[in-house]
Amino acid sequence: MLKRIIALILILNVTACAELQQVVNQMPQGGLGNAEIASGLRQALDFGIDKQVSKLTAEDGFFKNELVKILLPEELQKVDKALRDIGLSNLADEGLKILNRAAEDAVKEATPIFVSAVKEITFADAKNILLGADNAATQYLTEKTKTALYDKFNPVIKNSFSKVGADQIWENLINKYNSIPFTNNVNPDLTDYVTGEALKGVYTMIAVEEKEIRNKVSSRTTDLLKRVFALQD
Fold this sequence. Notes:
Layout: H1 2-25, H2 34-56, H3 74-85, H4 89-119, H5 126-130, H6 136-164, H7 166-178, H8 190-215, H9 223-230
Helix pairs in contact: 2-4, 2-8, 2-9, 3-4, 4-6, 4-7, 4-8, 6-8
């Protein structure tokens, strides 16, 4: 009896998957081919970069945006607390701000790399993405570009640290912390940390714009976006 129940469950699962794929394949395309649907999705991502990611490059683009503000890594939170406890709150505040400044500077220099990566994407499964979650295209983009973009962002972040003085400020902060009696020395890789957080910020803001376009007809500002995203309404 148990074997029969298991077999029945497997048959139902296979049938359900087949039916879902059939729905996807039979989705009305309103005269649009996969290439045009893919173009619409790429345009949505391009708009996300132009409208949302560009905000990150302004002063306080990270620091005053609660969606993407870079906070201290766990290892440095104790540094922050210890400095504040001994009356160095201003120094701690400056250290936090400078991490966000470096990210703002890096995104400004790296955005063209990101735009190029978007242009090269081909959505073989364009219809599946169109029928996916509010951030399905962003998730796909993240999966396809994160490693390459990290490799591009990392040296930019490192140069940005030098440009805005983050390396010297944090070296000073960490040295002060390490000199406090009865504390364990820390030596975090801030370049790696801020690179990762900057990438998260970029993808977060693209997802914001994708969700807007998917859910608000008024955000579909071109004929292509209107026609393509009408298919998912």
